[in-house]
Amino acid sequence: MPAYLDFISMFGAQVQPRELRFSGFSTLLMIHESSHRPGLPALGRSGRLFQLCYNLVGVSLKATVVKDLKLREWSVRQAAIHHQFDIINGTTLWIVTKGRIDIQQRFKQLTGANARAEDKAFTTLFECFRSSLAAHLMYCSWSTEDWHGYIRWLEDVLEAETTLAIYGRRSRGSAYQEYQQRHIQELQNWKDKTSEVIMLLEANMTTLTALQSFYVRLRRNKDFPALLKAQCEDEIQQFASEIDQMIHGFKMFKSRAFLLAGIISDRRELIEKVLHQFQEQYIERTEVLSKNLEKEAIGMRIITIITLLYLPATFVSVRLPPLHGHQEQDIH
Questions:
Q1: Which residues make beta-bridge pairs with 75?
Q2: In 3D, which of 94, 87, 90 has the Cα closest to residue 31?
């Protein structure tokens, strides 16, 4: 599917992860008898198939041993999924692109020895279709993990950085935080992160909604095999129900992130007012100090002038003692 090239182009070395803002969902239906591709019976391909590709975003904590709360690293990563299903032979093709192998390990667990029998059965067309739905649910479930921890981390950092601005006492001897311009810049950074969370959650919700709608409409398609349509009715309803629960979870996270973004804006405004108040107080104290210095300078000038006019002159007199014990010398 050519559209998948757009999804895999997001991966690669980047200075800033700007491609996280990319999201999409593309489909290709070739299930009508007159519009199918040439078949390859040797590979189990009848030519009547559907394709879809989409991407999801997940988050995970990279380091937990860091003592400083702000220095904990969270990784926001994408996964691009391509799926193809043959509606005659049940042949399935998966292409998954991701930076790590965690999804690959999950797929192995999904179809491994300890997996559920219905998730790893590929004998009949219905079993193949049911297993493909299980794989989709596994990818969607991955995208819902750790968002609660990530948002909680943002909330904890905000509380640690701005609590004294809200609840700190102003009396002498009380603990206080001296806010500077850099604190406003840091708050803007946290606001940007929160806004990014809202955008990513919205993107995941849109993708899951499109995936759910695709399979619901696929079952209603008149060119979809009648036997498979009858067999997979319950599975598609169950699939749609589980997707609804994930979307509901994303909505709750999004509401929480919206609230956090509002709190950050309010506290940034408060700190800006505190800084402005401190600047005004500093200016007032500087003006008072300047006036006092000016008064002292005037006083010193007056004292100097009075000293020069009225201070009497001082004379030092020296009295030489008379010459005693003069002896005459006889000249013989």
A1: 60
A2: 87
CA angle 120, 123, 129 (to 5 degrees): 65
10 Å CB burial of residue 181 (0-12, 13-18, 19+) is exposed
Chain segment 254-273, per-residue pLDDT in tens: 999 999 999 888 888 877 77
**Spatial distance between the Cα atoms of 49 and 288, rounded to a whole number of angstroms:** 83
Contact 13, 52 (CB under 8 A): no
Query: Quick check: 262 and 156 in contact, CB under 8 A?
Result: no
pLDDT at residue 318, as a whole number: 47
Region of 52 (left: φ > 0; alpha: ψ -120 to 50; beta: rest) is beta
Q: How many CB atoms lie within 10 A of CB 99?
A: 12
92 C-beta neighbours (distance < 10 Å), count: 17
Helix or strand (DSSP H, E) at 115: none
pTM of this prediction exceeds 0.85: no
The H or E element that residue 27 is part of is strand 25-30
